[in-house]
Design goal:
- The structure is a single chain.
- By secondary structure, the protein is an alpha/beta fold.
- It has one domain (12-190): NAD(P)-binding Rossmann-like Domain (Rossmann fold, 3-Layer(aba) Sandwich), CATH 3.40.50.
- The protein has helices at residues 12-29, 57-66, 86-98, 100-103, 118-133, 161-167, 175-190; strands spanning 37-40, 42-44, 71-74, 80-85, 107-110, 115-117, 139-142.
- The strands form three sheets. It has a three-stranded mixed beta sheet.
- The radius of gyration is 18 Å and the shape is globular.
- The protein starts with 11 loop residues before the first helix and ends with a helix.
- The mean pLDDT is 93.
């Protein structure tokens, strides 16, 4: 997905983000600020726990695996997601600031550009936790809850081509490398 996909929020969380973007774009047009919006894919990596149970899922699953807990996948877990490592996100914000004149007033989709099924991501977490700790973690398929948000059934892979064209930014981290770095950080914090 790129910036041409129409905005059609399906959750209140997404609606609030869109409203905030519109305020920022309005004030940019008025000349009060120079700003651009970076719409981030599924960010993961070292950092604090998310304050919301439905955010930071990859980090939460890494923590579960490190605790020896089973990882669960709804159904077959075949929904594609684009996971972007935090260091790539930080570099995107730095690139945005350095190129604000070229991007002001616009929004950009930021992600790795690589899709992974949720099931494959969980298998990667289990494999990497085993590599680092010797602990085997099971990945099991469970029936999705009856009231699961429609957003959970989406397919999403980011096309950050326009942002790359204007700023030179490109995601550098591959999923398994980012999971390794996150595991190492989480293990270090336990000491």
């Amino acid at each position: 997905m790129n910036e041409d996909v129409p905005d059609c929020p399906i959750t209140v969380y997404d609606l609030h983000k869109l409203l905030a973007e519109q305020y920022l774009q309005y004030y940019t047009r008025q000349g009060i600020v120079r700003a651009a919006v970076l719409r981030l894919a599924n960010v993961y990596g070292p950092g604090p726990k998310s304050g919301s149970a439905d955010r930071g899922v990859l980090n939460a699953m890494i923590r579960r695996a490190l605790n020896g807990e089973t990882l669960t996948v709804y159904g077959e877990g075949n929904y594609l997601r684009d996971y972007v490592y935090i260091d790539d996100v930080v570099r995107a914000f730095t690139a945005a600031a350095a190129n604000i004149d070229a991007i002001a007033g616009r929004h950009f989709v930021i992600g790795s550009g690589r899709g992974h099924t949720f099931a494959a991501a969980m298998q990667t977490i289990a494999a990497r936790v085993f590599h680092h700790t010797g602990r085997r973690v099971e990945v099991v398929s469970v029936a999705p809850p009856a009231r699961l948000s429609p957003i959970e059934f989406r397919q999403f892979v980011a096309d950050s081509g326009r942002f790359r064209q204007l700023t030179g930014w490109r995601a550098q981290w591959h999923l398994s490398d980012g999971i390794d770095a996150t595991i190492k950080d989480f293990l270090h914090r336990r000491d």
